[in-house]
């Protein structure tokens, strides 16, 4: 099997952390060129630390971690400790990791790596605010032809917003960067709340992960039990939605998802609806269909895939 070259851009966060563990467990499928982190769920000094902890937990200290932007392009930073806890990954042991943080800024790493690659060769997997990606595209447009695909977690249509009535957290955090990505004219798949709210970490699924009886399984259980407390109460559901691992699942088994090519644009100006993802799902305009908008998930298949990968 040919490895897919990917750069993961994230803001761990328990769901980002599980996404990293899932991706790091797929060395045959993914050549992870680097993990870049951005301020989002928690500030940058915590997101880069959390990414390195996950690499150590997975036994993948060969993967380099780069810290990126510590605030959005135009707005003040919003964080979500009320959801993720003070560490961002509450529920697991947090410690100073021994693997080094790379000196290079994440945006510089993204630009340098893409410029040094062939056209259509690298997939970007952003699961946090899109600041690093938007900054790289704005600073060096020559990187665009090198991008094979972007598979990002963010946005919502039928599910509304999870941070404001109109906006999902990742897009609300930096709508200006998100709009740059929407307009980049590269193959784009969006994994929104419409899909991730179908991936509920029920108690039954937590017990299936606990049964792995491994350090990774125990860490995931701890993080999910903490993560579930907030969203289960918020949504009145049996478990919290596991957002970010859906990106990796899509790359591994796209048949688990259903999607539709749509025009997607981001509201950047309105104080009422800033960060809203305007999805032309029914084709009521003649605007270019710039994104594959996912809207349906085989949840049982998703969790079977996740648990199978965590076994390793």
Keywords:
312 residues, Inosine-uridine Nucleoside N-ribohydrolase, Chain A, nine-stranded mixed β-sheet, 11 strands
The CA-CA distance between the termini, in Å, is 18 Å
Total DSSP helices: 12
Helices and strands, in order, run as EHEHEHHEHEHHEHEHHEHEEEH
Q: Please name the fourth-level CATH homologous superfamily.
A: Ribonucleoside hydrolase-like
CATH domain class name = Alpha Beta
Broad structural category: alpha/beta
Radius of gyration from the alpha-carbon trace, in angstroms? 18 Å
By CATH, the topology is Inosine-uridine Nucleoside N-ribohydrolase, Chain A
CATH architecture: Alpha-Beta Complex
Indicate the low-confidence ranges by residue numbers. none
Q: What spatial form do the alpha-carbon principal axes imply?
A: globular
What is the total domain count? 1
Side-by-side strand order of the widest sheet = 3-2-1-4-5-6-11-9-10
Quantity of strands, as a count = 11
Mean pLDDT: 96
The helix fraction, in percent, is 25-40%
């Amino acid at each position: 099997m040919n490895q897919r070259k990917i750069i993961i851009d994230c803001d761990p966060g328990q769901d980002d952390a599980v996404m990293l563990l899932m991706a790091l467990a797929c060395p045959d499928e993914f050549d992870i060129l680097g993990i870049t982190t951005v301020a989002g769920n928690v500030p940058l000094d915590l997101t880069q630390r959390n990414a390195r902890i996950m690499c150590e937990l997975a036994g993948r200290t060969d993967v380099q971690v780069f810290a990126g932007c510590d605030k959005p392009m135009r707005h003040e930073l919003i964080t979500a400790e009320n959801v993720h806890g003070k560490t961002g990954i509450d529920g697991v042991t947090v410690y100073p990791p021994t693997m080094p943080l790379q000196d290079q800024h994440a945006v510089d790493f993204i630009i340098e790596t893409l410029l040094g690659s062939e056209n259509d060769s690298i997939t970007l997997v952003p699961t946090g605010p899109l600041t690093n990606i938007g900054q790289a595209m704005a600073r060096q447009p020559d990187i665009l032809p090198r991008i094979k695909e972007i598979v990002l977690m963010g946005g919502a249509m039928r599910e509304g917003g999870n941070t404001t009535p109109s906006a999902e957290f990742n897009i609300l955090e930096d709508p200006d960067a998100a709009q740059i990505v929407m307009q980049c004219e590269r193959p784009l798949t969006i994994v929104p709340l419409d899909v991730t709210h179908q991936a509920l970490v029920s108690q039954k699924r937590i017990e299936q992960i606990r049964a792995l009886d491994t350090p990774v399984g125990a860490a995931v259980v701890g993080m999910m039990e903490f993560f579930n407390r907030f969203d289960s109460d918020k949504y009145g559901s049996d478990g919290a939605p596991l957002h970010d691992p859906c990106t990796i699942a899509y790359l591994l088994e796209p048949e688990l998802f259903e999607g539709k090519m749509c025009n997607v644009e981001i509201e950047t100006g309105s104080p009422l609806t800033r960060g809203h993802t305007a999805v032309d799902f029914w084709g009521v305009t003649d605007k270019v269909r710039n994104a594959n908008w996912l809207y349906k998930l085989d949840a049982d298949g998703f969790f079977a895939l996740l648990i199978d990968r965590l076994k390793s």
